[in-house]
Amino acid sequence: MKAEILEIIKRYETIILHRHVRPDPDAYGSQCGLAEILKASFPEKKIYVVGQEEESLHFLKRLDTIDDEVYAGALAIICDTANAERICDQRYKLADKIIKIDHHPNDDQYGDVLWVDTTASSTSEMIYDFYLEGKDQGLIINDAAARLLYAGIVGDTGRFLYPSTTEKTFKYAGELIHYNFSRTELYNGMYDLDENVVRLNGYVMQNFEVLPSGAAKLVLPKEILEKYNAKPSQASLLVSNLGSVKGIKAWVFFIDEGDTIRVRLRSKGPIINTVAKKFNGGGHPMASGASVSTWEEAEQVVAELDKVCQDYTK
Ligand SMILES: [Mn+2]
Fold first, then answer.
1. 98 in Cβ contact with 31 (< 8 Å)
2. Spacing, Cα 29 to ligand 1 middle (Å)
3. Fewer CB in a 10 Å sphere around the end CB: N or C, the chain?
4. Cα 284 to middle of ligand 1, angstroms
């Protein structure tokens, strides 16, 4: 599959890289890391990275703005995006050929060529894999690419904490740190929190509720987000923090975004993307999300999560 993708890349003069909406470091890392590899390897090609920018990730990479015409006869590569509707910038459909590279479950098999590896810790890890496969056929990696891929791996493994972290992950990370970039600068960019977010975390830690099953929930109403002057995207940064509470098996954050209630699910054992799917969401078995429109529906999510945690006890 990697060899086939490289052959296709070689055939196209214009390559446009996409990733998912509400990007995280792995979305940026895989999209922009691959772009840097392709730019270094094929200086004659036109390589673009597109999508709506996330302000908190400006430090990783700034994206390109391109006209619709650029897509004519172009190759689009979509990184780290499980389903077609989550692709940021739907103009990928205008491209001549579409490649999907991802590590989420392959529920939506969009694109002409698909490379999906659910054993990979991150799509950034897959991109490094791709580089290793193609380095004898002209692929070149540079400091900028290494920095981006390292950021993606660190982000998606929770700093090498999650079980998705494998020997390969450590090996690749070990190779990537030989390139010239500041890990301190990267970590500061990724993990420094604004003061209001830290104070909102205080609210989170005071207000979560735990059910006897080990399911936990936290509601962040609009008034609270306003009180702490926090954006929903900032609130999402706090979701993983409940993982350190003893006895919690799986938990859910409801973030009130006004027109919709964002549902963020995390787990330390029970499979919870089945819950997300019941509410038209999806994601990883241990980290997934959905959206609901009413608080009644939110309570249904809690009931489903409760059930999953009860079954896990058995
Ligand atoms: Mn990812």
1. no
2. 9
3. C
4. 9
For residues 228 and 199, the answer to whether their CB atoms sit within 8 Å is yes
- Measure the CA–CA gap between 82 and 100, rounded to whole angstroms: 9
Strand duo 97-102 + 75-79: pairing: parallel
Q: What beta strand segments (E) does 186-301 contain?
A: 209-210, 215-220, 250-256, 261-267, 282-283, 287-292
Instruction: Quote the ligand 1 centre to 82 CA distance (angstroms).
Output: 9
User: Cα(114) to centroid of ligand 1, in Å?
Assistant: 16
* Residue 246 alpha carbon to ligand 1 centre in Å: 27
pTM of the model: 0.82
pLDDT means per 10 residues, the chain with 314 residues, are 97 98 96 98 98 95 98 98 95 98 94 97 98 97 98 96 95 98 97 93 97 97 96 90 94 96 96 95 91 97 98 80
